[in-house]
Amino acid sequence: QNLTSQLHTAKEASEGASKKEPKKLQEELPRKRPVEMIQWTRMKLLNKKSSSTKLSRGELLLQVTLKDAEIQRLKDQMPQRINNLTDQVTVTDEEILSLKNQLSKRDEEIQKHEHELALKDKEILSLKNRLNEGHEEIRYLVHDLAVKDEKTQQLHYQLILKDDKIQRLGMVIDSAISDLSKAHNITDDHPDTIPPKKTVVVKLLGEEDIIGAHMSNTDASIRSYPE
């Protein structure tokens, strides 16, 4: 209603001030509704500008009235727009605060993970050092094992020599016992003729070995080995 009354006032002023086209304005303005009147006035103003003619006082007053109406409309909308923007800013502030809290939590988690990672690095370094020590110990054990294996081979060879020597010694002992049995005429038919103990001297590998032989029935057992 306010806009309509302003338009009628502008129309009356335009009717009173216009000298070039008073009848034309009087004929066209009353026939149009307010919205159509605004559109018509805008078109007239554009036509006036395009033809490079000066505006009449009524047309200028109408243009000012339209601008005032637009300004008033913007003023009326301003509180709602301010409220909307305030709500948006409030929501944005809340989102920023939430994001800051999330960022703080992420920073704490990152620091925690970095601390755990540092501990893991120390543990890995300790394991590497222990692994290097283990390698050194393994190399030492391998070397020691090689030395012991060489000694074992030497002992095995010596054992073979000893076994061969024992076998030859056994053969000499068997031969000596056989000779001794023949000398004393010991047979299975006369076990009572076996002497209780004899000492036999034999030659073995260029050395004299004293062997004590204890006779029991027809079996002979070695009681002592001089080596």
Question: What does this entry look like structurally?
Answer:
- There is one protein chain.
- The protein has 227 residues and is mostly helical.
- Among the domains are: 2-91, no CATH class; 160-224.
- Helix content is 74%, strand content 11%.
- It is built from four helices and three strands.
- It has a three-stranded antiparallel β-sheet with strand order 1-2-3, with helices on one face.
- Helix 1 (2-17) packs antiparallel against helix 2 (22-28), helix 1 crosses helix 4 and helix 3 (34-50) packs across helix 4 (57-183).
- It starts with a helix and ends with a strand.
- Residues 19-30 and 193-227 have low confidence and may be disordered.
- Residues 82-130 form a coiled coil.
- Keywords: Coiled coil.
- Residues 1-29 are annotated as: Disordered.
Q: In a nutshell, what does this entry contain?
A:
With 227 residues, the protein is mainly alpha-helical.
Write the layout of secondary structure elements.
Elements: H1 2-17, H2 22-28, H3 34-50, H4 57-183, E1 197-204, E2 207-216, E3 219-224
Antiparallel strand pairs: 1-2, 2-3
Region (Disordered): 1-29
Keywords: Coiled coil
Biased composition (Basic and acidic residues): 9-29
Main attributes?
three-stranded antiparallel sheet; 74% helix; 3 strands; 227 residues; rod-shaped; mainly alpha
